[in-house]
Write a structure and sequence with these properties.
By secondary structure, this protein is of the alpha/beta class. It is built from 12 helices and 10 strands. Helix content is 45%, strand content 14%. The longest helix has 27 residues. It is globular.
Length: 352
């Protein structure tokens, strides 16, 4: 089995990041005041659970939902709060969602800035059950800018900047954009979270503790096996460079398997229009290193990846981060394991 991530870098936040987060929190809190007012006036009642005699589990994002349903099986009701295809960073829960969080036995959330709306719910309505944050289950990495990546919205890396701008660019590389919350993208982390969920369910529903333990270990064991397959695949590659013409919410994956990566934006970046210099840098990287594929993530319009691929005569491929799934994927029975298996097949073809 591959070794889990062991090295961490500590970097300070910038004052600009702090102010952006503060402004975002003010806006989100204003929205929640209105939602909570609706709750208090009786609007948007929560749906009654199908089996009120069973534990009720609510998960914000797909990985948490998938881990919980694998652990619980038929022993508990598991609900995904975000609809398929929804963007967690900008999601605005309904009054019924808030009541579901308040009344569930276990609430599993991401626990970072991208779902800051969760903290607003938890501070406004006291849940009767337990709260499990996935970011508390593993060691965290900082989300950072790397060479060629557009560091912030509207910041152009073109060569006609003055000396001060060049110095600002250099200093932005490696600076923290925020804690990277996409912890599940490392299979090693995913297995650890599954086992943590199993442990919580053992405590919550002691008569079925053995079943939860068995289910958790079975699913985590499958993820461990996939982790080993990824490790074996990458161990055979002398060069492990990947280029994303998109956001890069895969730092945990890259760190675990010691991949070199280049991308247009950080994982939680809100930018959609990269600078000309960013496109030029990534295009040159693909051409100069003979990289055969430019990657993009799910729900992306992949215009940047298409542009780079067209300029270099290469192909594009999707890497599914598992953050959320489409309705079609949900109905087809997609799981974290099946989506990561797809990624494994794509990467095996990529490395030949």
């Amino acid at each position: 089995m591959s070794a889990c991530i062991s090295q961490r870098k500590v970097v300070s936040y910038t004052s600009e990041n702090d102010s952006q987060i503060e402004r975002g929190c003010i806006v989100k809190k204003s929205c929640f005041v209105l939602l909570l007012c609706l709750l208090l006036t009786g609007c948007g009642p929560a749906e009654a659970p199908a089996r009120p005699d069973r534990p009720q589990i609510v998960a914000t994002v797909f990985p948490a939902y998938d881990f919980a349903r694998a652990v619980c099986g038929e022993l508990a009701d598991v609900r995904l709060l975000l609809p398929p295809g929804a963007e967690s960073h900008s999601y605005e829960p309904t009054p019924a969602d808030i009541l579901a969080v308040q009344d569930c036995d276990l609430f599993i959330c991401l626990g970072g800035e991208s779902d800051a709306w969760v903290d607003t719910i938890l501070s406004a309505v006291e849940p009767r059950g337990e709260v499990l944050r996935m970011v508390d289950c593993v060691e965290l990495l900082e989300e950072e800018t790397v060479e060629g990546m557009q560091a912030q919205p509207g910041h152009d890396h073109s060569h006609d900047h003055d000396e001060h701008d060049h110095e600002a660019e250099e200093h932005s590389l490696g600076q923290v954009v925020g804690m990277d919350e996409h912890v599940w993208t490392s299979p090693c982390n995913a297995a650890a979270i599954v086992r943590t969920v199993g442990g919580r369910m053992e405590t919550l529903d002691r008569p079925n503790a053995a079943a939860y333990r068995e289910n958790a270990e079975a699913y985590a064991g499958q993820i461990d096996e996939l982790d080993q397959r990824f490790a074996d695949l990458f161990a055979a590659q002398p060069e492990r460079t990947i280029v994303f013409g998109d956001r890069f919410p895969l730092r945990y994956f890259a760190e675990e398997y010691e991949l070199d990566y280049y991308a247009a934006f950080p994982g939680c970046g809100t930018q959609t229009e990269p600078s000309a210099a960013t496109i030029a840098y990534l295009t040159a990287k693909v051409r100069d290193e003979g990289i055969p594929t430019v990657w993009y993530i799910e729900f992306s319009n992949h215009l940047v990846a298409d542009s780079i691929a067209e300029a270099t005569g290469t192909q594009t491929a999707m890497f599914h981060t598992c953050h959320n799934v489409s309705r079609q994927e949900m109905e087809a029975g997609a799981t974290y394991l099946s989506l990561m298996e797809q990624n494994f097949v794509s990467l095996k073809q990529y490395f030949g």
